[in-house]
Write a structure and sequence with these properties.
This protein has 436 residues and is an all-alpha fold. The protein has a domain of 50 residues. The longest helix has 35 residues. The radius of gyration is 55 Å and the shape is extended. It starts with 18 loop residues before the first helix and ends in a 32-residue tail after the last helix. It comes from Lingula anatina. Belongs to the NOP53 family. Pfam families: Nop53. May play a role in ribosome biogenesis.
Length: 436
């Protein structure tokens, strides 16, 4: 007798992952397997009728007659196949698999014999035509070869030019130069493009000549006058903005600030009352009370009222749509006008964009400031080049040209500040004054 006791497995069966491992479900699996086999082979036995399961045996067994008469022997039945071999045979109870019938080869097979022969004949004819074309081309090539067999090839290019090198040799050379870093990387197109369309040296106005025509000089004076008027307008706008700040002195501003800060510190009752009244006016929603709560009847009325308004709004929108259908022509005209306006606006924008190409871009913090026009007034004009008074500076002109052409950013001349420090005085111990 085995006296050894098995150690009890301490497993928590309240977790689903331990059910299958530590539960004996062999009988359940056998039952489910049997049920699946029944479904595969004609359906569940429990759901079948008695007539499907049982039959009446109407044949007599081969036994001797008690009176001694010979009973004719029945033909022996063939032995039934073994049940273990039953899985190898086709099962008639299982439904056949659904096979798609729209395959190309099946469609061709379904064709009638006449159509099939015609189809094959067309294929043969097409192949024959292709073969004929191929033979004709081969004959032409052979003919050309026979003609040009004993002739030297006519080279229509320079044999020693760089372009005439074999493509494979060129590819190898390019590959070698690329990985030995002899070739430079391909530069983008914008690298060679000019940053501005403004010419490097702009031709000055004809009125700026030392001996200009009267009309040209007057035109230049007009341009300069307009530029000065524009500057004066900008200055006047700036003065108008700064005027309120310039009217008050520093003492007045300090007194007004103290007065503003000391408001409400005296404890005036009138002011407090006015503030409380203002605070009452600010409150928009009244306090909610129990007696002000709406009843169910009132809410239903409001709901019906809202639904009625919604229906009226829908009817109104329907009428508007119906009226719009009748005035389709006028709507088309309006749409065409809007399209024309948009096209005109787009064309104006395109013109502005074209005009802005010549303007300098904002490359830095500062904005480009155009230099003053270099001109001589009417009384300053001289007929001789020797007496001409020089205007402007060549280096400044080139510097402004660089800025205008977006080559450098607009800059401001740095102011030279001279720092002055107060000298510190030190007293040496040896020379220190003795204080009594």
């Amino acid at each position: 007798m085995d006296t050894t006791t098995r150690k009890r497995k301490r497993v928590s069966k309240n977790k689903k992952k331990n059910w299958r491992k530590h539960s004996d479900i062999k009988d359940v699996e056998e039952f489910l397997e049997d049920e699946r086999l029944q479904l595969r082979t004609g359906g569940l036995v429990a759901e079948k009728a008695d007539a499907q399961l049982f039959f009446v045996d109407k044949f007599v067994e081969d036994e001797a007659d008690p009176e001694g008469h010979d009973v004719p022997k029945r033909r022996r039945k063939e032995p039934k196949p073994l049940r273990c071999h039953g899985n190898l045979h086709a099962n008639t109870d299982v439904k056949p698999a659904v096979i798609p019938r729209n395959i190309k080869s099946n469609n061709i097979k379904k064709l009638s014999e006449r159509r099939r022969i015609k189809h094959e004949q067309n294929i043969l004819n097409s192949r024959e035509r292709e073969g004929k074309v191929h033979r004709e081309k081969a004959a032409e090539v052979a003919k050309i070869r026979r003609i040009t067999r004993n002739k030297l090839p006519n080279i229509g290019y320079d044999l020693w030019a760089e372009d005439s090198v074999n493509s494979s040799v060129k590819e190898v050379a390019e590959y070698h130069e690329k990985y030995t870093k002899k070739t430079k990387p391909k530069a983008p197109q914008r690298l060679r493009a000019k940053p501005s369309v403004v010419p490097a040296i702009e031709v000055s106005h004809p009125g700026a000549s030392y001996n200009p025509a009267f009309d040209d000089h007057q035109e230049l004076l007009k341009i300069a006058n307009e530029a000065e008027i524009k500057k004066l307008k900008e200055e006047s706008k700036l003065e108008e903005r700064l005027a309120p700040m310039q009217k008050m002195s520093w003492n007045e501003m300090e007194q007004s600030w103290i007065q503003e800060m000391s408001l409400g510190l005296d404890g005036d009752d009138e002011e407090d009352g006015s503030d409380s009244e203002d605070a009452d006016d600010l409150t928009t929603n009244p306090p909610v009370r129990r007696e002000n709560k709406k009843t169910e009847k009132q809410r239903k009325k409001e709901k019906l009222k809202l639904e009625k308004e919604k229906k009226l709004q829908e009817i109104k929108m329907k009428k508007i749509k119906d009226s719009q259908r009748l005035r389709l022509k006028s709507i088309k005209k309006e749409v065409n006008e809007i399209v024309k306006q948009r096209e005109a606006k787009a064309s104006r924008k395109a013109e502005k964009r074209k005009a802005a190409i010549a303007n300098p871009k904002k490359l830095g913090k500062l904005k480009f400031e155009a230099p003053d026009l270099e001109l001589q007034l009417s009384d300053e004009l001289k007929g001789s080049l020797r007496l001409l008074k020089p205007e402007g500076h060549l280096l400044e002109d080139r510097f402004k040209s660089f800025q205008k052409r977006n080559i450098i950013e607009p800059r401001k001349r740095a102011k030279h500040i001279k720092w002055t420090y107060k000298p510190k005085s030190y007293e040496k111990k040896d020379h220190r004054a003795i204080k009594a």
